[in-house]
Amino acid sequence: MSSPRIPVSVVLELTYRCNHRCVFCSCPWEAPNSRYPKGRELELKEWISAIDRLYDSGVQSFSISGGEATLKDCMPDIVKYIHDEGIRRGCANPIVLISNGLAMKEEYLHLFKENDVHLSMSLPGYETFREHTGVDNADGVLRWFSRAKEIGLSTTLNVTVTRMNYHELFETLSMGLINGATSILLNRFLPGGRGLSHMKELTLSNEQINGMMDTAEEVLTEANRYGNLGTEVAICSIRSPERYKRLHVGFECAAARGFFVVDPAGKIRTCNHSPRVVGHVLEEPMISDVVYWNLFSRGQCKPSACNGCISADKCDCGCREVAHILSGSPLDPDCSLGIEIGSARKPMI
Ligand code: SF4
Ligand code: SF4
Ligand code: SF4
Prior knowledge:
Elements lengths: L8 E5 L30 H13 L4 E5 L9 H14 L6 E5 L6 H9 L2 E6 L6 H5 L5 H12 L4 E7 L7 H10 L4 E6 L10 H4 L3 H18 L3 E3 L17 E3 L9 E4 L4 E3 L9 E2 L9 H8 L22 H8 L22
Parallel strand pairs: 1-2, 1-9, 2-3, 3-4, 4-5, 5-6, 6-7, 7-8
Antiparallel strand pairs: 9-10, 10-11
Helix pairs in contact: 1-2, 6-8
This protein binds iron/sulfur cluster (SF4) (3 copies).
């Protein structure tokens, strides 16, 4: 079997810890009765070896998340190392740091500015912020968006859309952009992690998934900005996929193809949504579960219900790890899309 192909982008989950308690949190170690094999968190020296190995394997762009990345003491050193090493190796790309903003500090914003970091902060609703996160209100994170704009730091407003905050999506997106966010990242709620305990209250209907995208397109058009849908949908689940000009919509699973994930203990997964460990960043070979990895990296996990669809070369039938989590196999349809896959064969784009 040929060596597994390593994507050019990686997400480093620096810590399991978090100061929010989001009901939709998809971290696999937060799942009810989780059997996720959490390990000892890597220390700075080990992260530096890991980053070297990743650069040596062809990785060119890094995102940093958690848990909550700002709770990891050595986060500033890791940011600086990725940045300086990227310059030294001639492949400097912006680093994306994903945070909930609760432990943000002025000094971090300056660190990010100096090290070419793009800051992505979450706002899962304004009125419903407390219900979603367990933290009093969203005013703090909105202030950090404004402050980041003042110092010229580019930011993304990261919104997980659920059945509970769907009614205030227009206001949430508008508020984030008015307060200085540069772009938006929209994530439909995906069952996984702690969210598995709240599926009924959180999972959007198919009508709401379409409505969420329409609202984002409307806000982005009015604000003259652009955004991305971060959690893939199926072409046949969307009424008019061709109508989105400002919102970039993904139909293909990028797990192990576009990016992959290293967890706080160095364990590798195909996607942050995946509960399955497939290797370790400090071991040789890095990828040990090659069969599972290749299903994703070679784009071979399409449901048989999609056989014969003329859009099959550009659509992976929603989220492949949700299919794995809910049905037991990444080769099953994604039943969180709210439609029966195979019932439609619309060659719309
Ligand atoms: S979704 Fe993010 S901010 Fe919320 S609990 Fe999970 S890791 Fe923390
Ligand atoms: S039938 Fe499958 S491949 Fe075709 S559009 Fe629907 S989900 Fe995508
Ligand atoms: S498994 Fe694939 S489709 Fe699901 S969130 Fe990850 S990249 Fe997206």
